[in-house]
Amino acid sequence: MGKQHLIYTDHTLQELKGVGPKSLQLLNELNIHTLEDLVLYLPTRYEDESVINLNEATDGDVVTVTGEVYSSPTVAFFGRNKSKLTCHMMIDGVAVKVTFFNQPYLKKRLVMGETVTVKGKWEQKKQVITGQKVMAERSGGGNTLTPIYRLKEGLKQKQLNKYIEQALKLVNIDEWLSDTLINKYKLMSLKEVIPILHKPIEFEQLKFARRTFSFNELFLFQLKMKWLSKLEKESNQIEGLNYNINDVKNFIDTLPFELTDAQKNSVNEIFRDLKAPIKMHRLLQGDVGSGKTVVAAIAIFAMFNSGKQSALMVPTEILAEQHAISLDELFKGQLNVALLTSSVKGKKRKLLLEQLNAGEIDIIVGTHALIQDDVEFNDIGLVIIDEQHRFGVNQRKKLREKGADTNVLFMTATPIPRTLSISAFGEMDVTSIKQMPKGRKEIITSWAKHDEIEQVLNQLNSEIVKGQQAYVICPLIEESEALDVQNVVAIYEQLQIKFGAEKVGLLHGKMSSEEKDHIMDRFSQNEIAILVSTTVVEVGVNVPNATFMIIYDADRFGLSTLHQLRGRVGRSHHQSYCTLVASPKTESGVERMHIMTESTDGFYLSERDLEMRGPGDFFGVKQSGLPDFRVANIVEDYRMLEVARDEAAELVQSGEFFEPKYDKLRLLVQESMEEQNFD
Ligand code: ADP
Ligand code: MG
Predict the structure, then answer these.
(1) The Helicase C-terminal domain covers which part of the protein (predicted)?
(2) Global pTM?
């Protein structure tokens, strides 16, 4: 890195005292190649070594406490190089036995009658502290926070500390933020902040430094998003769509129901995009069953009406088939609907591709089979990606690039929490359907322990007797040695015994697609009453007559997945039920079960899911385009993220960002753009 950067030096890692070939190798493995990398290699946490009152500690805590030694230490040796030092101390009025393993030399520092500070693990019941170290005497305050870095075997915290200390003296740090922003938000200068993050003196100071660093990171990230969206807007100029609005209205009139207000609003937003001379890039999110498919169908109709083709990509074959069928029904033969999955092969496939290329197909529905190279359109104007988070960035991109002027509509039933949508998607336009079609009854969800399964199965039976159908969901297909999960096959067999073999079907991911289709068909035709399945039914499957669902080991799933699964029932005017069967071992498992029984609002559930799982796990970081921040946390620092977004927008939109004084910052942003893939 050269002087054009905001953090720069002419020196190298090799120049540091103590860095030899071996430690250099280890540093490289931690992705530290330069001194600049090293100073930005921040601690993952800090251990608080400030002295506390022992009476305030709880059992199992690692504590730092001060007291008087009242028995001379004794050392017992056993085995080779093994020893145990024992002494007694009076700490905050508590008589405590203090032991140190394999540190016999500490005897010198634990002198009877003297006051010393020790750090160790407090075992309240036994009144024992298993010591880790005897603390050096501190004169007034001093460092009580010890930084802890993520390390490699062979590299010690102390060593890294020393390297960083030297590096900080050799590296120049320029500000990323203007003085105006620093003053406006009462931040520190980056030059002060970085050394503090490595060696904070006290907690308040660390908090302040972290706040400043987070702001820097979030601002940089938002600058990138704003810049990208500016570039995109400039390159995305296309001709606005030319459809006949009356034809579209007539089509809407032929639908078997009236659109909900939320659907009407979504249609309006999408049509505004389609008319504008810029490519649509919109996310349509709404709970399972909120009627996204119909909204998509109206957009497809408008495309057809302007002489353009559409493609709808979905994650599973079952779903592709269902979508193709329901679209065909909605269009009543006006549009030519085709289906392309990996099961479509040979002559049939060849013919289909020819028709597509000739423009004879108006809407093609399919799985990732759609992105194969030989799938060519005549004139594609709209790409719709359902359950968009199921596809990788590159898959989505490939489909989009099937045409030069493609508008893109993403759909998801896993609502993206607001927090993530402004950070991960930046400027992607978002439309939310927060309303269900009239007449839907809320699914009644309950939670049962494994030993209550008989009652649950009796409830299931009473639904079946009424002519309704049921799903029974199990987490894994094969018994795993690590996980004590119910085996889908075992449950299938058990239910066959209870309800009769012919009434129960089995569906799992390892079956061939023909087998799966066959079972799904029989279930849709009500030839099977109970479908035992793994999570393959998670997305989109529509069998309105199914009104009962059992989810085994429900605590193994996240809230969003449970909500998706539950959405397979509650698809008609009949009352539906979902029973979670779980005996959670963790508090969060119990909490999730409670949350699920209390809410059917997918937007609320996704916020809670994010809160409980954190942004990294929510959906793959890589897929979401979410950066790995060093300090910032988009959930906790959400308010700051919004502020950073507004400031970044101001800087980019005013054009100030492109003035020479921002040359270095632009370069930094540019580099971070290259590291990432965006939609
Ligand atoms: P999503 O894709 O959002 O899960 P769908 O589009 O599959 O939901 O719609 C679920 C069901 O509701 C379908 O059977 C659909 O025909 C029906 N539906 C959609 N919109 C309405 C509406 N406005 N009124 C009544 N039923 C509707
Ligand atoms: Mg759907």
Answers:
(1) 452-611
(2) 0.68
